[in-house]
Amino acid sequence: MTAPVFVADQLDAVGAEFVLDGPEGRHAVSVKRLRPGEAVVLTDGRGRFTEGVVKAAEGKDRLVVAELTAVREEPEEGPRITVVQALPKGDRGELAVETMTEVGVDAIVPWAAARCVTQWKGERGAKALGKWRATAREAGKQSRRVRFPDVADAATSRQVASLLADADFAAVLHESGDAPLATAELPTEGDIVLVVGPEGGVSPDELALFTAAGARPYRLGRSVLRTSTAGTAATALLLGRTGRWD
């Protein structure tokens, strides 16, 4: 089993020993109950990491890590997979972010689709985006990643179209798709962008806009998945097909 992962924002400050405190230290000491001699990984969540061994657990929120290796960087894998996720209702957006992160998505773009019941505006929108980013961070640690997915600012449909136009492969998951995603011709490098619509579906105007940008509608299977699970299923399919899960 791989060592548990904790976030250390200032990896450049890591020397012979490193003190993990604050919320991360509390999680390590009081929740994980790590003890001297156990291995840990410290990461900045952007691919840079170091490995070490617990020297001491002090109080409720202070972990001293020693025997640290040189800071290394995990290269980005390709092709890079971005999921444009329409805003689901309630906490299902956080569920989508959590499971896509666990599977291995590289980036998530929240999308305020026309048929979304939920709309991010003002302070409420900023709070919701913060929750998505916190979820990606925690799920990245839980799944023992050292490169967490980027969670972008919420995008409009025109911004999504621009993203699709720049992709090496662009797809809209839609029940009208006449081709299965499982047999689509995929690039071996570059950017793959998938659009997951809201519960009410992608509107005809949005589909036309995305098609004009170079995206094609594809179906996943015979059943119609909920918006909070479709991105996870599609990401898993592509990770297997592109060889990233070899």
Automatic annotation (TrEMBL):
Its EC number is 2.1.1.193. Residues 78-238 form the Ribosomal RNA small subunit methyltransferase E methyltransferase domain. It is found in: Cytoplasm. Belongs to the RNA methyltransferase RsmE family. Pfam families: Methyltrans_RNA (PF04452), PUA_4 (PF20260). This is Ribosomal RNA small subunit methyltransferase E. Specifically methylates the N3 position of the uracil ring of uridine 1498 (m3U1498) in 16S rRNA. Acts on the fully assembled 30S ribosomal subunit. The keyword Cytoplasm applies. SUPFAM superfamilies: alpha/beta knot (SSF75217), PUA domain-like (SSF88697). Keywords: Cytoplasm, Methyltransferase, rRNA processing, S-adenosyl-L-methionine, Transferase. One of its GO terms (biological process) is methylation. It catalyses: uridine(1498) in 16S rRNA + S-adenosyl-L-methionine = N(3)-methyluridine(1498) in 16S rRNA + S-adenosyl-L-homocysteine + H(+). Residues 20-65 form the Ribosomal RNA small subunit methyltransferase E PUA-like domain. Gene3D superfamilies: 3.40.1280.10, Hypothetical PUA domain-like, domain 1. Transmembrane segments: none annotated. CDD domains: RsmE-like. One of its GO terms (molecular function) is methyltransferase activity.
